[in-house]
């Protein structure tokens, strides 16, 4: 570490380490303000060999900091707008489910809202067969405890935790056998987590649409609405 020498008229020169100089400047942040001439004298060397004054460097740093703050503010604004749009879409979904006169209408309205408002390509709604045994309602599927789907999603039914991310082809075919295009990513959400009413699965042809670390608040809200609507009609 380099050392600086400070000489006084009434005392021998004193060597100060860079650490001590840094500590002094931190303890006296107004020092350069009281000695503005130093701002033009002190030079900061770039790797290219050019030099700028300390005040020019400070201006550049402030510009960079302001740009970072502006970028962060823009991201926050975009996130707020996105959340507002999602909230409005959730409200529309809630109205659709509340007004649906039957289970078939619930499934149809759910698929329409998710496609139009959320860009979801495929939807699967499954209810455990212990509470729902009918096979004649389009869009609502009974899940047998020892069936292929229950075995394929054994870990999901055991933990009852939301699963998001890429989905294996075999599992995708079980959930979305009539999909127009191969489903590449999916979100699988429990219906009535504590009572295990069933599952809601959302599929997308975009492999990046659902990610393991994505936020799950809106998925939980959506599942709560779907579960409440189904529970009221079975």
In short:
The chain has helices at 18-27, 31-34, 37-41, 54-99, 103-118, 148-152, 154-159, 169-175, 217-231, and strands at residues 3-8, 11-17, 43-45, 51-53, 122-128, 140-143, 163-166, 185-191, 198-204.
Molecular structure report:
Keywords: Coiled coil. Residues 52-86 form a coiled coil. Pfam families: DUF484. By secondary structure, the chain is an alpha+beta fold. The chain has a domain at 100-231: 2-Layer Sandwich (Beta-Lactamase). It is built from nine helices and nine strands. A five-stranded mixed sheet has the order 6-5-9-8-7, with helices on one face. Strands 1-2 form a two-stranded antiparallel ribbon. Strand 3 and strand 4 form a beta hairpin. The chain is elongated.
Query: Gap between N and C termini, in Å?
Result: 77 Å
- If you consult CATH, what is the topology of one domain? Beta-Lactamase
User: Which class best fits the helix and strand makeup?
Assistant: alpha+beta
CATH class categorisation of one domain: Alpha Beta
CATH superfamily of one domain: GAF domain
Report strand order across the widest sheet.
Answer: 6-5-9-8-7
Discrete helix count: 9
Radius of gyration: 31 Å
Q: Any idea what the CATH architecture of one domain is?
A: 2-Layer Sandwich
Number of E-type strands: 9
Uncertain regions spanning at least 5 consecutive residues: none
Q: What is the residue-averaged pLDDT? A: 85
Compressed to H and E, one letter per element, the order equals EEHHHEEHHEEHHEHEEH
Protein name: DUF484 family protein
Pfam families: DUF484 (PF04340)
Keywords: Coiled coil
InterPro entries: DUF484, GAF-like_dom_sf
């Amino acid at each position: 570490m380099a050392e600086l020498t400070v000489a006084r008229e009434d005392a021998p020169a004193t060597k100060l380490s860079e650490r001590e100089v840094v500590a002094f400047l931190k303890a006296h942040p107004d020092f350069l303000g009281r000695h503005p001439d130093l701002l033009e004298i002190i030079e900061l060397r770039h790797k290219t060999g050019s030099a700028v004054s300390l005040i020019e460097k400070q201006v550049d740093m402030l510009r960079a900091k302001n740009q970072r703050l502006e970028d962060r503010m823009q991201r926050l604004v975009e996130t707020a707008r996105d959340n507002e749009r999602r909230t409005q879409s959730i409200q529309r979904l809630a109205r659709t489910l509340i007004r649906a006169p039957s289970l078939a209408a619930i499934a149809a309205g759910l698929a329409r809202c998710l496609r139009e408002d959320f860009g979801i390509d495929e939807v699967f709604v499954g209810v455990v067969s212990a509470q729902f045994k009918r096979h004649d309602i389009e869009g609502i599927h009974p899940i047998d405890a020892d069936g292929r789907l229950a075995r394929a999603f054994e870990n999901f039914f055991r933990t009852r935790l939301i699963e998001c991310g890429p989905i294996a082809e075999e599992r995708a075919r079980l959930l979305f056998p009539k999909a127009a295009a191969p489903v590449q990513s999916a979100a699988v959400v429990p219906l009535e987590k504590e009572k295990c009413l069933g599952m809601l699965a959302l599929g997308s042809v975009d492999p990046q649409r659902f990610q393991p670390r994505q936020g799950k608040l809106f998925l939980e809200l959506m599942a709560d609405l779907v579960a409440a609507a189904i529970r009221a009609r079975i």
